[in-house]
Amino acid sequence: MTKEGLFFQISPCAGEISGHRAKWTREKQMVRFLWAILFLAAPLLVVPALTVEWEGEFGEALERIDAYHYVDDNEVVAALLEDQLSRVWEGPQRGEILWRKARSLVAVADLSLWQETMEKDEASALYDEAHSYAEMAAEFFPDHAQTHFWLAATAGRRAQLRGIFNSLFQASTVRDYLVDALERDPELAEGYYVLGQVYRELPGWPISFGSNDGAVSLGRRAIDLYEEQRAAGLVPVRYFDHYIDLATSLWTRNNSVRKRERRQNRMAEAYRTAETVLERGLAYEGIVSLKEQNDREEALEIIRWVIGELSAVESPRVRQRMDLAVARERLSSWE
């Protein structure tokens, strides 16, 4: 694992808008799943738009929105989005603005809940509004992976906060939205990341489709994709929560060295014969290089690395503080 810096720099001259300066058992398993999405998946808030490129003023506007979003400047993001929503009324371009509006509302609710600066009723209303924007985005731009991803994210958050995520149907709905997203963009790392949580937290056959092997494979796929995209300059941050989540899946699976080897051989064959993006994601561990260690040894190695990296950040952002707190909690419960 490489250890480069965490955040890119944004030029302050890009921060002016509208005359002001912009500043840069089953039920329990269901609840665990959505709790994981709500608090472990904070960088769902910073999903990069990798599938579509727009040129000209509109493309520059999207880049500015995304740049401010990466550094959690939600007030500026909201102002920029409202400006674009008043300008763009039709077609895929409006869909681009609408899914970003959904993302923005989720960001505000998620971070405010973690900081305990927002009541649950208020957050629930924001998640409802975010889901409505995601639905509209899917109508304007049905072929965009992000619109389906944010349908999944907002549906999951709404259900968890209301305490109604107590049926396999709800979990299947989230999964199906995510599969729709990955079918449109097989390199959408966030899709694999959240799917990994779904497969880890749900019961397995014959009750449901949960799978610890699948969860680990999907987690590895998410990390590998993000690191590739980060190395290519497409993603300006490192997603430490992805590493925390993979460590959690490894700790939960708890395979010995020998069992890891046997399982990997089976998954290699499954990957070779896979026909869908989901099947390849579930069998991805079959084609990666593994150290000769058991699952929990790898989990501890990952979580200690995360803590070391985030502890060294001099002025951590809210998201980094959140990841560090989760990592320390994991380590405390595992040692």
From TrEMBL:
InterPro entries (UniProt xref): TPR-like_helical_dom_sf
Gene3D superfamilies assigned: Tetratricopeptide repeat domain
TM segment ranges: 33-52
Key word Transmembrane helix present: yes
SUPFAM superfamilies noted in UniProt: TPR-like
Keywords assigned by UniProt, alphabetized: Membrane, Transmembrane, Transmembrane helix
Protein name: Tetratricopeptide repeat-containing protein
Biological classification of the source: Bacteria, Pseudomonadati, Spirochaetota, Spirochaetia, Spirochaetales
